Amino acid sequence: MRRSAPRKDIDENDLKVSPPKTSAAGLEAVVIALERGVAQAGVTRTAKALLRLNQVNGTDCPGCAWPESITGKRKTAEFCENGAKAVAEENTKRTVTPEFWAQHSIADLADKTEYWLGNQGRITEPVVIRPGETHYSAISWTEAFDLIGERIRATTPDRCVFYTSGRTANETAFLYQLFVRSLGTNNLPDCSNMCHESSGAALNSTIGTGKGTVSLDDIEAAELIFVVGQNPGTNHPRMLSALKECKDNGGTIVAVNPLPEAGLMRFKDPQTVGGLIGDGTALADHFMQIKVGGDLALFQALGHLLLEAEAAAPGTVLDAEFIDEVTDGIAAYRAARATLDWDETAKATGLTREQITEVAGLLARSKATIFCWALGITQQPHSVDTIREIINLLLLQGNFGKPGAGACPVRGHSNVQGDRTMGVWEQPFGWMLDGLEKEFGIAAPVEHGYDSVQTVNAFAQGDIDVFVSMGGNFALASPDTEIIESSMKRAGLTVHVSTKPNRSHVVHGQTSLILPTLGRTDVDDKHPDGRQILSVEDSMSVVRSTQGRLTPVSDHLLAEPVIIARMAEATLGADHPIDWKAMADNYDVIRDHISRLIPGFEEFNRRVRERNGFVLPSAPRDRRAFVTDIGRGKFTVSPLEYLTPPPGHLTLQTMRSHDQYNTTSYGVDDRYRGIKNGRRVILIHPDDLAEAGFADRQLVDVISTFAGAERRADRFRLVAYPSARGCVAAYFPEANALMHRELLARESNTPGYKAMAVRFEARHDDDVEGEDDGPT
Questions:
Q1: Is domain 197-414 classified as CATH 3.80.10.10?
Q2: Residues near 727 by Cβ (< 8 Å), separated by ≥ 6?
Q3: SS3 (DSSP) at 245
Q4: Is a pLDDT exceeding 80 seen at residue 770?
């Protein structure tokens, strides 16, 4: 099934820059999506995959976690451009065989970019590299599992770490945490630690659930939606369709972001004639170009103005009955927001008093408001406090448990929320551990394990002997890239369950295994009871089935539940009380266990086979109730805080290109921002560029400063761009080398990827300036 993979890597000297676009999607998105699919997988395979994507009894998109409607009709093309790219990557006919590994040494692969590695294709057979070897080579599945079991038994559970990305299905995640806790550790870091952990910390402490409280119907019915720290046009483009429905229904949208984003300016819905050939729909009615890290100050100002408006017209702005009956802490909140330093607010936000007052008026008049947010909020030192301020605003007007209102943290990877629901967490709830002991007869460990950043620290200190990664690309996704890569190489064994090559395979442990697995779109039918289905949970707590339909590229691939079960058998032995084989043979057995253990999953096997799956319960959404320690929603008071880089520094935030998802680069273009053929760029306001004494397109080294320590990333090009003053942006993972692992959000331990203080040093090897296709 092999097609020749592209051998050309990114040439950063071929950078081209054009003006940013002012609209998203449209016919161009359709054409590019189809071109990518056909180039990777051919016409038939692409059509078969896309027509089943996000459909009833179909395949859940392996990209983002945005939901599908459970009340309306699904569209024929129920996917976006980047979803189609994700499917193309997985459906590719390009294959990475043992011959590929024989041809390419680790030294050769170490010089390749993530884009090049990922474009080589799907891994077809398990491979191993041992101490002193320069190339991976084939290994049988039995030998691989025996090696894993031997190495885990040779150390202690606390020196073993088990990472997972969000793309694992519910059944896979449950089986994974069961294996890890049977072994005797809670070292279960996951990608949530690096993304939305701040949301969970803030929401659990204030409203009693770490999840959002809205449905897709609520988005469409809202009177007012705030889209904060988020770029839906690239990261979850199907959200644009829901925002368009809101606008069509008379709703108002406020965008709060340091960068202007095309998708929030105008959306050309490719499902409509007007979207394909017309001007589309203007989405954001107000764009608040806030400084990075200034959101806390903005929300405090909005709270102050809501209280002022209520005082001027009592009974017209706040929901006094709701506040009195189901919340706590309003008196302290009123006192804290009674006054406001407008000069300090302007310094923190970069916004004028008039801008903030105008938007506060919209909020005061709205009877149904939703706040949506993503990583632009969660990855700062004060992010938990910022999200608590969002909750304060929602509580003031009773925006829970009514149509068109609530909190909407927009999760990233498909099923990242389901992983946590299934128990993949380093800080498990007591009821979960008690349930595991009762259901399986194991002694579940109670001591908290490592989160993602603690895992980086443990690697650096030489405290990890065995590292298992169920998907993901831990080395490239983590902060302090240089430190994690060098320290990962000292670990005794690294195991990567993967579909395609990535950077973590290259900076491997002394012994390393790569175990190829089925993708979301592959049929999973090598079981005694025939074809199996899995399930996922979307951003709005809907659980639905997913099943692949395509023939796998290799007969040597194993499904993730099978891989976990065989690792467990090889490690724990035949006398272990859990019947791992039964669960690997028939996933219904896993779901039966889940239905007895996890609230909301009763009759799991029956309900997951219903047409639209089922919705997990939510007290704030369903009953206007809050299951906190005091049984009430909590107003909180936080001090004003914002980012203040040292003199001569700017605040750097990381971001995704339109041609990537997490660490996977689909291509080399960021079409909406006008960046083509390059990723090592810094977007900077022209005035900041001039003040720093640099020229547009100049080649520089970037130095970050934190707690007296510096990190360095070489050879970036400065690109004049309409960003917020004092703030710059760069793509991750290229900029992760600048991120100090101790720059963290308080309480959540989430890395501060949106809070780096940086300066630039000119390079003198700037031979190629790149082409300019127009003014920025």
A1: no
A2: 258, 291, 292, 650, 651, 652, 653, 685
A3: helix
A4: no
